[in-house]
Every structure is written in structure tokens, then in C-alpha cells.
Fold this sequence. Notes:
The protein is an alpha+beta fold. It is about 40% helix and about 25% strand.
Amino acid sequence: MKIKLSNLSFFALTLLTACTTIAPVQETAKPSLIEESVQPLEPDVSSSEQIPPPTWKRQDKTLRLVRVMDGGVCKNGLQGARGAFLLYAEPSDVERIKNEQGTKVFLGFEKQIEAFAAQALEYAVNVMTFEEDPFSLGEDVSQQRLIEQLNRQFRIAVEPALTKFTSETTLLVDIVPFVPSFDFLQKGCDASRLQAVE
């Protein structure tokens, strides 16, 4: 089981570089991603549910989306789950740490985050009940129940790791399952194929 990082076309890799955005070339100077992240951002209600929210609240602070991590795990040969997780970070923490310790420190942070996110996903999938509910009102209801289980179990597993990470690094982060991306496997799960998901 492995969690892999991928880029969103509209988000730069702020934890490592925190200096540029992906946008059309403009004649005027544009602010860095960190500077942009401090500005208030209103979500576009007309946007698709397939677009992750650019901000997230944790401990009364507004965090910015900095990564999308893909992951998948099999509970057994038949059942498993795969999907994306959204990594949010507090912009002022990122900037402060970058100024105090340099950008290389984020490589270590990245490995720590990947490790505990993978462990949390594995825990969540292993305790989930994948059997179909005979009283379910349809596939949508079954899917919603699986999503609720994954969210609840992932949060139970990841919360202590997030708290420890923040206390050790002074970087406030949160990891959230991106519900629209999740695929729950109930009729065959091949771990080698899940790890190859990009």
C-alpha cells in the first residue's frame, strides 16, 4: 500500500517551492502562492464537485490546499478502496518555516505525511464493512455509507499523527479524503494495481 503525490493543474507545489503559480503570463508582477494564500478566497459555487476546495478550516485557521495524494489499499483479495486525499497547510507556517529552515526541510515533512496518511488509509480500509446492506435503498446509499465509514475511520487514525506532526514541526496541516475521487472495490482488489495508480 502506498500513497503517491500528484499535482493539480491549478495548484503549485507550495510546500516545496512556495514561490510560483500556474497561470497565464501577465505583464505585471504576480504575488507568490504564499502571498495569494493569505488573501481571502471565496469558493465558486458554480464549480464542479470534482474540484477540491482550495481552503479548509482546522483549529480556527484557514489552511490552503497544497497537495493531492493518491492512494489505495486492499483489505483482502476482494475488497479495498482507492482515491485522492487533499493535503492542506497553514500558509504563514509554511512561509515561516521556509524562512527559518529553508525549503529542504519540506522533503522530510513530505515523507512523514505520506507515511502516516498511508497508515491511516490502511487502518480505515481494514476496519470498514464492505458487505452490501440488504436493506439499502440502492447503490448510491451503499456508496454513501462506505464514504461515511472511510471518512470516520480515516479521521480516527490520522488525527493523532496530525497532532504529533504539528507539535514536532510547528506546521499546521490536515489531510482530508476527497470523496468524489473514491472508488470502493468489492469484487476484486489487486494491491499491485492500486499502487500503480497515478
